[in-house]
Amino acid sequence: MVLLSGGLDSATTLAIAAHDGCRCFALSFAYGQRNAAEIGAARRVAAAVGAAEHRCFTLDLAAIAASALTDPSAPLPANSDSGAAGIPPTYVPARNTVFLALALAWAETLDARSIYIGVNAVDYPGYPDCRPRFIESFEQTANLATRAGVEGGGFRIMTPLIALTKAGIISRGVELGLDYSLTVSCYRADEQGRACGECDACRFRRRGFDEAGVPDPTAYQSGGVC
Amino acid sequence: MVLLSGGLDSATTLAIAAHDGCRCFALSFAYGQRNAAEIGAARRVAAAVGAAEHRCFTLDLAAIAASALTDPSAPLPANSDSGAAGIPPTYVPARNTVFLALALAWAETLDARSIYIGVNAVDYPGYPDCRPRFIESFEQTANLATRAGVEGGGFRIMTPLIALTKAGIISRGVELGLDYSLTVSCYRADEQGRACGECDACRFRRRGFDEAGVPDPTAYQSGGVC
Questions:
Q1: Is this complex scored with an ipTM above 0.85?
Q2: Which of A13, A28, A81, B138 has fewest C-beta within 10 Å?
Q3: Angle between helices B8-19 and B166-175 (to 10 degrees)
Q4: B25 found inside a domain
């Protein structure tokens, strides 16, 4: 089971799970996010990596969880420092808890035992639900919650990117033959999935390609690298 | 925040939260369950108890989580013993994890800090996600997952029924003036919310009224007590 948003991190996570020898079931969410172009990207990535199945689960998280990522009137962060303190406005209350809980439901139904999520060292200074302590605690909860956990052979939450920087993630994906032009990271991507080049997600992504020494394959709205 | 299915247990939980002095926000789920009459019951109970708001959140849990409770072709348990060993066929993979995660998202958005859930001693020999150990672990995970947990003043998962039998739950609700005729417990309730009188949920409920010495106000499909 792989949580697949269609962004760079989760696409790399899927490629790693496939390389680990897993038969991969990819799960995406249409949850009212602004960057809905990611869902089309997720579909393309799942096909390219050869996932056994890809599902997109719809839930109106925006109706109950306030965030700049789901509220069309809220400003999105731009030009903030990757090391800035505090929780960013794109934080969605309990998002990874909700996503992992739904992944757990499908994993138990499929008799899958490994749940891959692309949390990493770029995210977790800011997002509490990307920290290793949260992941460990969720794994424990999952094994208390479920038949599979109680009857033995419980779940493992796999975080293959946890110690990697953006450049490290990209280098790993390139080694595995992943085509990053299929992925969308931008908060303000247009319908064709082209990136704005200016939001924080675009800036961190571009810097990652620079630092990895890999040409940036991202399609930008302006037609060139901003 | 109160998880409100519209059954006897969650209705009592809501009455207790109101009695605790809480301004109550009740959350129900339309998740593809067979006993959809519960949702109408939840609406009536929320109004009767005076909840500040009641929301019904739709998610197609049946699409990813296999269970006799969501699969119309699966047989439902009847005439099994309340103390029977093992996990019942009505177990839905990760259901309470998913429901608590969504309640957590809404609670953080509302700045609520107490999440009430009606798990109790009747359920937890069978359902792993009704056990006190699961609840404690989820609370810990919730406080690692969220801004509120990280910044202090975290969440508490409240389980006021945890040590009660069905009769004890009913006695407490009657003390608080709860009208149990508004609630629906039956797995096979008809559109008017009338109970079959034969499934396990009906049998445990009727036995609870008997043991509490309270007349059973349930409307049965046969028109009388079976």
A1: yes
A2: A81
A3: 40
A4: yes
B152-171: per-residue pLDDT in tens?
Answer: 889 999 999 999 999 999 99
- What is the value of pTM for the model shown? 0.92
Give the mutation candidate from A33, A55, A98, A130 for the B interface (greatest B CB count, under 10 A): A98
Residues in chain B within 8 Å Cβ distance of A144: 128-129, 131, 133-134, 137
Within a domain: B86:
yes
Backbone angles phi, psi at B5, to 5 degrees: -85, -25
Nearest Cβ partner for B105 among A57, A64, A142: A64
Q: What CATH number does the domain containing B68 carry?
A: 3.40.50.620
Paired with B195 in beta bridges are B220
Domain holding B99, by residue range, is: 2-212
**DSSP characters over B94-122:** THHHHHHHHHHHHHHHHT--EEE----TT
CA torsion angle A115 A116 A120 A125 (round to 10):
-20
CB atoms within 10 A of CB A75: 8
B226 falls within a domain:
no
